[in-house]
Amino acid sequence: MTESMPFLEVKNVTKLFAGEKISGVKNISLSIAEGKITAIIGRSGSGKSTLLNLIYGLIDPDAGRITFLGERVWGPAEKLIPGHDQMKMVTQQSDHLNHYAKVWDNVASLLPNTNLTYKSAKTTEVLQQLRLLDLKERRVADLSGGERQRVSIARALVANPKVLLLDEPFNQVDASFRDNLQQDIREIVRQTGLTVIMVSHDPQEVLSLADELVVLKDGEVVEAGNPQQLYQQPENLYTATLLANGTVFNGIKAASLGIATKKKTIMVYAEGFYIDKNSIENLCTIEAVLFKGFYEELVLNNGTVKFKTINLNVGAYQTGDRVSVTIKQFLTFEEGLA
Ligand SMILES: Nc1ncnc2c1ncn2[C@@H]1O[C@H](COP(=O)(O)OP(=O)(O)OP(=O)(O)O)[C@@H](O)[C@H]1O
């Protein structure tokens, strides 16, 4: 690959579906960086899966083109077996697994028998990377949902694809299992230079896992950048509400909290408030204390507006307490509330 050649490029791609209302993706252009994890985020129906399917070549664009390593990605209209040879996709359904075969065979069967030493070594390597080696003799039918997802990913990786596409792959996996799997994927990316493009609904997941975020709204890219930048300085209210837990106010309500701005909308993240039990400025009532484990969510009301904040000092506040609230930081937007 030459220096100037983009790794994977989506250029002015449109794919529309006729339905009650026209939907799909519209005039999308983006460049995917090699060896990085790019997450596509957006509300339900914003076109995330459609974009992933277009990149993989599972559907044909109406207009525009996708190029991978300088060559066009062809869709089913031009290609008999859909899906690019150097990409692999894993979705929530692990239907392609043979549930009655062992984990080992499900993974090894993707490699040819021309070099049995390589086949065995590569299968061992991938099973090890995905912490499946101890389960290699188990039938897929006897595995948990999370373990099956690991097998699906191992199967996808055994043939050394350049790109792994993940469509909400961690949805059915419990939180601790998901964290471990995410760390393992990060490690594989670091070790092998694999490029990952994932679709996710989960803000925690994309913020901790992705190097780059692409935000889709109604089939269009509204914003893209690294997670920290998009979390701290989103250009759009839409992006802020996708990524952060916070409260959105109009100007009048914001004024009641001491924020003066000409912008239409204000968002304060849950961590943007400062609570003080001992001050009498800007008093608010605690309407609810929601235990979340190592922190609590407090629902507060100042008589004009209700909002939520987090409190790490678990047990310090009770429902009905009056506390002083100061806003440490907030974001302003020209957009009105949707
Ligand atoms: N094959 C299809 N035929 C008709 N409409 C479709 C088809 N595929 C997708 N759509 C529509 O295109 C829009 C985008 O769908 P897509 O599945 O890409 O969204 P998404 O962001 O992945 O949503 P979700 O998060 O709910 O999975 C939706 O309105 C959907 O109904």
UniProtKB/TrEMBL annotation:
SMART domains: AAA. Keywords: ATP-binding, Nucleotide-binding, Transport. InterPro entries: AAA+_ATPase, ABC_SmlMolc_Importer, ABC_transporter-like_ATP-bd, ABC_transporter-like_CS, P-loop_NTPase. Residues 8-243 form the ABC transporter domain. It comes from Mucilaginibacter arboris. GO terms for molecular function: ATP binding; ATP hydrolysis activity. It comes from the Bacteria. Pfam families: ABC_tran. PANTHER family: SPERMIDINE/PUTRESCINE IMPORT ATP-BINDING PROTEIN POTA, SPERMIDINE_PUTRESCINE IMPORT ATP-BINDING PROTEIN POTA. This is ATP-binding cassette domain-containing protein. The lineage of its organism: Bacteria, Pseudomonadati, Bacteroidota, Sphingobacteriia, Sphingobacteriales.
